[in-house]
Design a protein that fits this description.
This protein is of the alpha+beta class and 754 residues long. Helices cover 51% and strands 11% of the residues. It contains 31 helices and 18 strands. A five-stranded antiparallel sheet has the order 11-12-18-14-15, with no helix packed on it. Strand 1 and strand 2 form a beta hairpin. Helix 6 packs antiparallel against helix 7 and helix 23 runs antiparallel to helix 24. The radius of gyration is 29 Å and the shape is globular. 49% of the residues are buried.
Length: 754
Amino acid sequence: MLAGVWRRTVWVPFVVLCLVFFWEVLFGWAGEYRYFWDDFLEFTYPTRYFAASSIAAGEIPFWNPYVFAGMPFLADIQSAVLYPLNLALNLFVRDGHLGLVAVEALAAVHLMLAGCWMFLLVRRLGASVWGGWAGGITFMFSGFMVTHVIHLNILEVAVWLPLAFLFLHLAFTRCSLVHALAAGAVLAVAFLGGSPQISLLVYIGLGFFTLYMTGNEIRRTGCRVASWLKIPALGAAAVAFSLGLCLFQLLPSYELSRLSIRPELGYQQSVEASFPPWNLITLFIPHFFGGTGGGDFLSYWGVGRYYYFWEMCGYVGIVGLLMAWIGLRKSNRPYRGFLVGLLLISLLMAAGKYGGVHRLFFAVVPGYDRFRIPSRALILLVFSVSVLAGYGADVLVTGGRESLAPWFRRLAWRWAVFLVCVLAAGAVLFHFLGSGKVLRSGAPVDWDFFLSRAVPFMVFGVAGTVLLVLRGRGRLPDTVAGLLVVGLLVADLFVFGRSHNPGAISIERYYAPDSTVEVLRPGEGEPLFRVQTRAPGGVMLMRRNQGEINGVFNVDGYNQLKLSLYKTFDVGRDLKLDLLNVRYRIEQYQGNEFNLVEAPNYLPRVFLVPEARVAGSDEETLEWMKEEGFDPRRTVILQQGRDGSGPWTPGLSRVDVVSYRSNRIEVNARLDGPGILVFSEIYYPSWIAYVDGVRTPVLRADYALRAVRLEPGDHRVVLAYESAAFRNGLMLSGICLLAGIGCIFGRRRSGFQR
């Protein structure tokens, strides 16, 4: 009975530690709340808000009309609309509003899951409960995980790596297709989390594990192909199943990638935030170059911009490194060689332009050339060290005090010498790199700064040394040793990361719908219009994605996958804004002075044009539109179709927008002659038109807009977002799921199950 209670409570520490770690954010401290900052406020929260509120209202958000004059939403994989845990957010929508705490709690849940999955993996690999706790704590509170809490997409993918590894390990060791499909299902869930770069790194890590296990099988069985070929076959089955389950997301995302401004990167762009050799010191002194966080924004002085701090952060704790070394040297658990190899490869991958691996992967690995910031490969380093730390804690606590006592005493002295060497190397590096540098706050980088950053390293380094001495002298019972290891790991990682995420910016204040927002938001019965809230000089009247929260139609936003048509719509600022239905625009004067002005000639959201010309190319379209005298109210330039004009009297024709929703626009139009109905909406191939119930082609008009050709008379025109890529992907994913279920039920006849 006690054993059953013990097994049921081993998860509790991860829950408790997450609650303590995020206490100010989730519950406030002495009644005062703190808030996640940076991209969490600017991108993550607005994105999750729009998705959850739309789903709670009964609509899948395929299109986002509130940024960049409209762009695909579900197809943008960063939105992670269909990620299972994100779908739960709609349960917390009240009166169309999603509270910030619900999204922040989701980040905390993911850190807790990271610890739990790593615990299960380390236990499966043979370590004790103490080892499982040590590995889980090291992984969940590592620098990579904690500093990326503000990037929920990265977290939503990275936390699944240990569980995918666990199922793939079971598949290989048991020759089990069922477990391979389970690994594929986990990878599919992770992929939906919305960070394809981290997903690719996870696939690469598991690919190396597959190669390692294949090599082991070849050594064990010789050259009998039928024996060792099962390993790569199971790995391929896991990958294929995961991708098949995600086709409903993959196909729309691929379609968007071809039409966005970032279809691919050059090599020089891809090596941004490469991990330089001198940054190895941050694995021991994480704030050697200062730091950035909700309460420590101006202390970073290292290479690159302020966000390089978290992009290059692979800190796992001084105690974590000590435990990993013990695990490497004295544990008899499997895959230690593989974990060290993966650690080294991840460092070479993270090095980017400072090493040769990134260039090789950039040229060879499919999809690798689509991403920048190679230092994110540190996720594989953190994973490897966490497993080894679990092994080391297992050895220290349960490895036998008598037999290992002399080795612990020797290690204590070596560890102390190593700490002194690291501190000396850090001082030399600081002397050469920090000379003459200043913090972003303007303060000089001096030796007091270095010593203050080195204090945690010295404190926890000495604590680890004392622990080794006491264990070596046999003065610590196993339970006390386990508590000390776990306690030091928690203290070490909490001192590093607990202050990184909480900031002082209140979400209610940040996105407060003030009087300006009320002016910029179309009122009940008022014609629809858009606004421009960011001046060319950089001044912003609203937050970049605030329209998603306050219902303001904006031509600005914050998303690296905005449509190419919007970006290249170069017909002059005034004409572009008029065509995009911009009623209010911001004008910046000297310095940061600005004024909000109402445009006198802006065009309606939907309008009729009597005359059409067909251009032969995009360049010709832009050239015609830049001609003096071009009147978009009189003439529309089409990219396909035919020229046309007819007797048409504007006074006898009218357009009424009956309904305007994210995925559907309904319009009543009356014409006394043939004409073109132009929608001030960015063209995208998934939009379908129905005129009086009959499907009609949507024409690309005025370079970037949509249009429908109409005959004289009264018409009901409906524009609906109907993604063939999503529909086909959903069908193929369903077939893949059914095939997987069939394989599970037929596993006894598959030949893969022992």
